[in-house]
Write a structure and sequence with these properties.
Blueprint lengths: L2 H11 L3 H9 L12 E2 L10 E3 L5 E6 L10 E6 L7 E4 L13 E4 L5 E4 L5 E4 L10 E5 L5 E5 L2 E8 L7 E2 L5 E4 L7 E7 L2 E11 L7 E5 L3 E5 L20 E7 L3 E8 L6 E5 L5 E7 L4 E8 L14 E3 L7 E3 L3 E3 L2 H5 L7 E3 L17 E9 L5 E3 L4 H9 L4 E6 L3 E5 L5 E3 L7 E7 L10 H8 L5 H29 L5 E2 L2 H7 L6 E5 L2 E7 L5 E7 L6 H12 L9 E7 L2 E7 L6 H6 L8 H21 L3 E3 L8 E3 L5 E3 L6 E3 L19 H4 L7 H16 L4 E3 L5 E3 H10 L17 H14 L10 H8 L12 H11 L1
Parallel strand pairs: 23-31, 33-37
Antiparallel strand pairs: 1-9, 2-3, 3-4, 4-5, 6-7, 7-8, 9-10, 10-11, 12-20, 13-19, 14-15, 15-16, 16-17, 18-19, 20-21, 21-22, 23-24, 25-26, 27-31, 27-32, 28-30, 29-30, 29-32, 34-35, 35-36, 36-38, 37-38, 39-42, 40-41, 43-44
GO cellular component, one term: plasma membrane
GO molecular function, one term: ATP binding
Membrane topology: Single-pass type I membrane protein
């Protein structure tokens, strides 16, 4: 039986299949519509009524954004032919109403289009000079433009929503400046995913009259420019050269300067958005995948957005979410962080002592070393001769929050903005962050320092006492750690942070790491070798963390790294695993000096990893979604048997593996489209990541890499086309010199391409993947995912 037939039968027999399909294809929170496409004096709009454009492209009505604003309603325009509720314009974005049933959008006595709340108070208006009300009508056009016009002369447009855009620019809409009146149109981001009020990021034309467009933070700080228009494109946006998808136009004449665009295919649905995370984005709707595809975004790197993570927040391109708080700090507004708004940044957990001497209540402030950082802005230079003097200069000023010493002393006062943790620790600068001494490990109390200074006549007695104490403590620790080692044979152990510091020699022997933590080698007193992972960048409550860890600790499978124990002390979260002598799969695949994995070994690694995932998804009491499948989380034992690790991100869901809405997790390059678009996920996100990893196992190359010419290349886009052309041998790692079982290679390439389909319903389950790799089930030729097809076309240009 073919895989496609099995997939169809399984999908249709699943009791939740049609529910999932209905939810996926149906708009969320979209009211009912009636036939009219206009609002007149005698036909106001209220409740769940909407008006729809004549060609059926756009809808105007009351709507609720997001999932948490149950009592906030807005008048807006959204796409009618897009299954996801996607507002493109909002009237009362700063003044929501709570009862749409008794509120009205109507033509007022003076001819303006106005919104009245349940108390009949005006909360929004077109604010025009008085006109004859009996001749004014508001009409929604197929372009998405809401116009107020004079019925006695339909060509006379009194007001247009296109002249007052919110966060979205639709095809045909102008974004520019009227040279006569000085009026400018600009886009402003939503505050967060639940609140359409103007956020801190805006996009608009240079007010001084040049052809440049700027993204501005908080109305005062420009952090990106489009470059000048050269007659074909803006010089800082090379993606605009793709003329087979969009027509881009910039016009400058005696009365106005403006930018506009239109798709080549007039049936294409697209939008240009100023996003809540400070990037402008061009998006296209893919009907067959029911998803928005990103065409381009600027600035290209998320961490180049100014003050994205707010005060004392750090950005990391390799982790999701991108922002995390510095050591000793917590989110200023956790609820806003959950909605994607980190602009308020982080607040200090413990106040500074603000003294160079010990206070009566604790030690003086100290500094936490942060290597590999892009330093914050607004620095000040201090003329000192050494790093020690630089530290002292910072301590002497109560407003000084950090310093760096590299070819001179640099200090920062007040909030730290624009910090970035660079992916390669060998680059960047070292920042010393000022913290209360109690927030740093291994601090010495003032009493200890005093005792250390007063030696003299009693030195021998103190020495003998210290030796005796050390022997007693060491004996206790030795016995306790041996007891822990024995307990680990059958039980999940709760470690103390200090114990893990000791067995890892203060985390000195690093084995590897990823976007959410580093892994260190540890040695228990009975000579048992373990791997200790320090989790970083996760925002999880203590109870939730312990519940998930205990559940994961109970699972055992030959293809899962066994979790031996964990530590959870405040913000310190660590996991203790069995040690794998052959390190992680990425080391074997991508390091030039590593052992070359022959095809037979690679195939068994791919099959073993699939079996481990299938067990998590289908055989555990609770379905476990791993959420971060990648070569760095596949470890190899002495016999190269693969073991899945990296469960620090795992998400538990119901036994039926139904959908769960959670914050974005995982690693860029392996993320399924569901993560990016913020919809509830299923175990199919792991299937997508597995498919991406399988292509890396086959090819021995990263999915995203740079060619020798310095151009970006996305290997999956090439791989899918080679598979459909039945040229799978060209995808095999060159180090193998063509030595592979062609039937296995063909099977692996095809199943990888099925796994990375845009639509999750088209992807197989991991159980089906195992059957295909075992040769029990045949696999048909996969289609080319629409997103990869468009990406391949762009890369060829």
């Amino acid at each position: 039986m073919s895989f496609l037939l099995l997939r169809s039968i399984a999908a249709m027999s699943h009791p939740l299949f049609f529910s999932f399909l209905f939810i996926f294809l149906s708009p969320l929170n979209i009211p009912h519509t009636f036939a009219a496409n206009s609002i007149s004096m005698n036909h106001p709009l209220s409740g769940n009524q909407t008006i729809i454009s004549q060609g059926g492209n756009f809808v105007l009505g009351f709507f609720q954004p997001g999932n948490k604003s149950a009592h906030n309603y807005y008048i807006g325009i959204w796409f009618n032919k897009v299954s996801q509720l996607t507002p493109v314009w909002v009237a009362n974005r700063e003044t929501p109403i709570s009862d749409p049933t008794s509120s009205e959008l109507r033509i007022s006595d003076d001819g303006n289009l106005v919104l009245l709340n349940q108390f009949k108070m005006q909360v929004w208006s077109t604010n025009l000079a008085s006109i004859a009300s009996n001749s004014a009508t508001a009409v929604i056009l197929d372009s998405g433009n809401l116009v107020l016009r004079d019925d006695s002369d339909p060509s006379k447009v009194l007001w247009r929503s296109f002249d007052h855009p919110t966060d979205t620019l639709l095809p045909g809409c102008k974004l520019g400046m009227n040279k006569v009146t000085g009026e400018r149109q600009h886009l402003s981001s939503w505050k967060n995913s639940d609140d359409p009020a103007p956020g801190i990021f805006s996009f608009g034309i240079d007010p001084h009259g040049s052809s440049q467009y700027f993204i501005v933070w908080n109305g005062v700080r420009q952090y990106w420019s489009s470059g000048y228009w050269n007659g074909h494109l803006f010089t800082a946006v090379p993606q605009m050269k793709s003329k087979d998808i969009y027509n881009f136009e910039y016009v400058s004449d005696a009365t106005e300067n403006y930018f506009t665009y239109s798709p080549i295919d007039d049936k294409m649905i697209s939008r240009f958005v100023m996003g809540t995370l400070g990037q402008v984005k061009q998006l296209t709707w893919l009907e067959e995948n029911q998803q928005w595809m990103l065409f381009w975004s600027q600035p290209e790197r998320q961490c180049d957005v100014y003050a994205l993570c707010g005060p004392f927040g750090s950005c990391n391109e390799k982790s999701l979410p991108f922002c995390s708080c510095l050591k000793g700090f917590s989110e200023a507004s956790p609820s806003n962080w959950d909605l994607g708004d980190q602009s308020q940044g982080c607040v200090r957990n413990t106040p500074l002592q603000c003294s160079t001497k010990s206070s009566g209540h604790g030690d003086k402030d100290e500094f936490f070393m942060m290597p590999g950082m892009r330093l914050p802005i607004n620095n000040h230079s201090v003329a000192v001769a050494s790093s020690e003097d630089c530290e002292l200069a910072c301590l002497k000023n109560c407003s000084c929050t950090a310093y760096a010493y590299s070819r001179g002393c640099t200090v920062w006062y007040g909030d730290l903005l624009n910090l970035q943790q660079l992916s390669d620790g060998s680059i960047g600068e070292t920042l010393y962050l000022r913290l209360a001494a109690s927030k740093l490990p291994n601090k010495k109390s003032s009493k200890e320092l005093l005792i250390g200074a007063v030696v003299g006549a009693v030195v021998s007695i103190l020495a003998l006492s210290a030796i005796a104490s050390f022997m007693l403590i060491s004996g206790y620790r030795q016995r306790r750690m041996i007891g822990i080692a024995k307990a680990m044979e059958n039980n999940l152990v709760l470690f103390k942070y200090g114990d893990l510091q000791r067995i890892t020699k203060n985390f000195t022997e690093k084995l590897g790491g990823g976007g959410f933590g580093s892994i260190y080698k540890g040695l228990l007193p009975d000579s048992t070798v373990v791997a200790v992972k320090k989790l970083e960048g996760l925002h999880q409550r203590e109870k939730e963390f312990r519940t998930e860890v205990r559940t994961i600790g109970q699972i055992q499978h030959v293809n899962l790294v066994r979790l031996r124990g964990f530590c959870s002390e405040g913000t310190k979260r660590l996991l203790v695993y069995d040690y794998m002598p052959n390190s992680s799969l990425d080391t074997m695949l991508f390091q030039s000096n590593s052992t070359i994995l022959e095809w037979k070994t690679r195939y068994q690694i791919a099959l073993g990893a699939a079996r481990g995932l299938a067990y998590l998804h289908e055989k555990c009491r609770d379905c476990i979604i791993h959420c971060d499948i990648k070569p760095e989380n596949i470890f190899l034992d002495a016999s190269f048997v693969p073991k899945l690790a990296g469960f620090g991100l795992a998400k538990l869901v119901g036994r039926d593996c139904s959908r769960v809405l959670t914050t974005m997790r995982g690693t860029i390059g392996y993320l399924a489209p569901e993560w990016i678009f913020g919809v509830p996920i299923t175990s199919k996100v792991d299937v997508y990541s597995y498919g991406m990893m399988l292509l890396e196992i086959i090819s021995g190359r990263r999915n995203a890499e740079q060619s020798e010419e310095g151009k970006n290349a996305f290997f999956p886009a090439l791989a899918v086309h080679k598979v459909t052309e039945e040229d799978v041998l060209s995808l095999l790692d060159l180090k193998l010199n063509g030595d592979a079982d062609l039937e296995e290679l063909d099977r692996a390439c095809k199943v990888a391409c099925w796994c990375i389909q845009d639509n999750e319903f088209h992807r197989p389950s991991m159980g089906q993947v195992v059957q295909i790799l075992e040769g029990v089930v045949d696999v048909n030729m996969p289609p080319v995912p629409r997103s990869l097809h468009l990406l391949a076309e762009n890369l060829r240009e």
